[in-house]
Predict the 3D structure of the following.
Amino acid sequence: MRLRGFVILLVGVLAFALVAVGCGQSQRSEAGKPKTMNERARQQQVAPKEGEGRDQGLIAPAPESHVLRLTVPAMKRVHDAVVPTAVGTDEQALKNHVAIHLKGTGFPWQKVTNVYIAGHRLGYRGTRSLYAFYDLNKLKKGDRIYITDANGRKYTYEVFKKFAVAPTDVSVTKPVPGKNIVTLQSCTLPDYEKRLIVQGKLVSHT
């Protein structure tokens, strides 16, 4: 029984690693009250299993550095933004960057992959996170998302889907069979109860 209890505890700790991202708070809401992620939403977070983002082939040479750069023309604050790979609970990485690439998910140079990128909707005053993904909800089908790898190769994605999921739904972090996609994630407003998801498919790389 002790061993079983320890295993359950370990799984719970690992599961907490998904994206608390997008759930940071800004100064004040329109009503003058601080916006914070509620405790129920926080407790529901789960994580992808290590290695779920791996695939079996490459469309371009993998660079030594896994740091990405992200540009989304339809979003005011996302232009040539440095995106490091980090776990979803790395608050320093989230505060110091517009977004993070979620550790354990894929990279754009992989043939079949889901490049999972998450950023704060409101963020924190005085940091790069402030309102970084605030206008994620404005993306629509056909909008472009650009990722540049450390070798300077540019990957162009086209938005094909936008939806919301529960914090426990890790299926959105997994690759789609036969496809190279990017997933952008932030929290829904005003209650942070769900995750806002925008996905794009690869249309070119140069």
